[in-house]
Amino acid sequence: MDLKILVLPGDGIGTEVTREAVRVLRHVTAKWGHALHLAEGLLGGIAIHQTGSPFPEETGRLAADADATLLGAVGLPEFDNCPPEKRPEKGLLGIRQALGVFANLRPVRTFAALLDSSPLKNALVEGTDMIIVRELTGGIYYGTPRGISGTGAETRAVNTMTYTRAEIERVSHIAFRLAQGRRRKVTSVDKSNVLENSQLWRRVVTEMAADYPDVALDHLLVDNCAMQLILNPRRFDVVLTENMFGDILSDEGAVLAGSIGMLPSASLGGRKPSGAWVGLYEPVHGSAPDIAGQNKANPLGAIGSIAAMLEYSFGLQEEAARVNSAIEAVLNSGRVTADLKPAGAPATTEQVGEAVCAAIG
Question: Which of 4, 137, 176, 283 is the most buried (most CB within 10 A)?
């Protein structure tokens, strides 16, 4: 198979973790005899430095031409006080919108080797295995009107949360279909006791459930869900929620996994003529500028994102499974970075990438 992939290292540790993810990707494609075609582009703070825009037109063209896109991370402290349109994160929102990726899948799984890395008691987190499905192109991050107006005591900020039935339906389909291949349970998360937006969300998801009689559906308010993720994470299989709630809850999932560096993600849109998903793949963590360039960053979230890419965008189930099993083998070996609290000396970013390749064989 020909794999045409755009790599966007981005900012901070993004360069380091994508380098190891690409190392694993090269190893897999060579082992299984696939043809790999890589392009590299700019996104985020580095794009602002070099082009003046967090999402250059050239990057949009490269992304449209690729079969899938791998992203490292975006964000730099020097832009923290800039207006939203001049921040690196604007590039992330831009590429999501340009690709039309509307469903963000964030698996949260606890590995036996990492139980002691979580700040929670082992008995609480052991056996956790869920996917958080976050709607990605609607809600308060994109709604209008938005902005800051006025001066002095009359200064006012406005953000608008908005969803259409069609937006809720399409992300619900993905959640229910995922559940059919797992433990057949969807938990929909909203704030319907306060927000009309959430009331529509709950109504539409409930109606969608009728098309999936083999999947159980329950509803949780977002504050209760945040609590249950800590108190009883094993109760969750597929968690479905809107954009902002999903952003927050999926980062909470990092506590269960032992480190935010462990979490991959896949953002899916429509399907190409081949049937493959249009996909943007990235680790959940940020750019971590405090450790950038020090070969300390955990690349396993980025490498796990490669596994997701192989599965969803290319249908390469065997290759994806081998990458995931190699990640688990490396965790069991203790050859991991400092964030995972190894018993011995921590491995470097590069050493972890090499260890995953060796475990693949």
Answer: 283
